[in-house]
């Protein structure tokens, strides 16, 4: 059955961040995921503890967490390949892994980062391999690479782009994050990606296209893709990483009663 996890960095945004896990629980879900939830790559112990408590007190699982990715609202898309910020990235890895150990987190997303002015792309790519190897060595959970749309200088646009980096790292726990929205918007063949790389995928995220809103507001055939994932043996979570086109209490109306039941923690 499909299992849904709510991305609380993009949903329930009308509430303070630390109140969103409880909001997801009240909406009927038992699992949440987050982008990097702190204002810096090196939060205080008190900030980390407050975040962990918000998950525990809500009675949900933290299934996924991004490593620090820079100023996301300002256009940054990751630190993995950002020359000069290696220390920040690795510090966030260490913190995220400790959070994951406390909460049983299964996947960590390592956003690759934009191309930088005045820096050789080959130097960025070499650093990315080192940073990904570092992250993979710090945890037995999956370290994810994600093709992303909407960022002109982000170099990983297709599943093949991400797989090429994954192969160069060579660590078995560096895996593909298949965001069906980003893949669709970037013109990738989602059917082919799921058929060819299902054994490399450790997490799936969804939003409809165009618009990046909830399924049913765009043109992506989610039932077909979900069926392909099931046929391929995918048993992971489906991250709801979309902007609600309506109020938060109606943002999940597209999920059928049976799917909502399984998505609230069923297998």
From TrEMBL:
It comes from the Bacteria. InterPro entries: HyI-like, Sugar_Epim/Isomerase, Xyl_isomerase-like_sf, Xyl_isomerase-like_TIM-brl. Keywords: Isomerase. One of its GO terms (molecular function) is isomerase activity. SUPFAM superfamilies: Xylose isomerase-like. The keyword Isomerase applies. It holds the Pfam family AP_endonuc_2. Residues 22-254 form the Xylose isomerase-like TIM barrel domain. PANTHER family: HYDROXYPYRUVATE ISOMERASE-RELATED, ISOMERASE. Belongs to the hyi family. This is Hydroxypyruvate isomerase family protein. The lineage of its organism: Bacteria, Bacillati, Actinomycetota, Actinomycetes, Pseudonocardiales.
